[in-house]
C-alpha cells in the first residue's frame, strides 16, 4: 500500500509541474475594463525599422511581440488599478493585488501584472478571462518575468511604462 501511494504522489507531482509551464501566475483581474487609462500606445508591426540608437530593451520588446495580429501590430492600452494609481506613478513600492493591464486591442490579449508579497507576478488572458499563456511562448509568465525583471533600470518593481502625466493632472483637479 505504501508503495502505491508514493507512486501516485510522483504521478501527480509530474502532472502539476508540466501544467505550470504555461499557466498564468497573476490572476484575471475582474473589472479591469473600467480601470483608468494611463497610456495608449502600439505594439509595432514586424516590418518596423527601428532607429539605430534604439535601446536593447525596446528592440527586444518589439522583436518578442512582432507576431501580434499576424505581424501587423495593434493598439495597446495600459490601464492601472484605481487603488494603485499613486503607486504606479512612482513605479511602486506596490501593495498586494492586481496592479496593471496591457490590452492588445486587436486580438484582445490582456497582459496582467499583479503584486504578491511586494513582488511582481504575471499572466495572460483573453477578454473572457481564459488563461492564454499557452497560446504563444512569449505569453508565458516566465517570459514576462525575464524582460520585466531583467531591465531594472526601466522596469522598476515590475512596471515598465513611463505613465502619461496628464491623467494624474486631471485626477488631482477633481
Ligand atoms: C521583451 C520585454 C518585455 C516582455 C517579454 C514583456 N513585457 Fe510587459 N512591458 C514591456 C515594456 C517595454 C512595457 C512598456 C510599454 C510602453 O510604455 O509603451 C511593458 C508594459 C507592460 C504592462 C503595463 C504596465 C507597466 O507599466 O509595466 C503590463 C501589465 C505588462 N507589460 C505585462 C507583461 C506580461 C504579462 C508579459 C508576459 C506575457 C510581459 N509584459 C512581457 C516589456 C516587456
Automatic annotation (TrEMBL):
This is Cytochrome P460 domain-containing protein. Residues 1-21 form the signal peptide. Keywords: Signal.
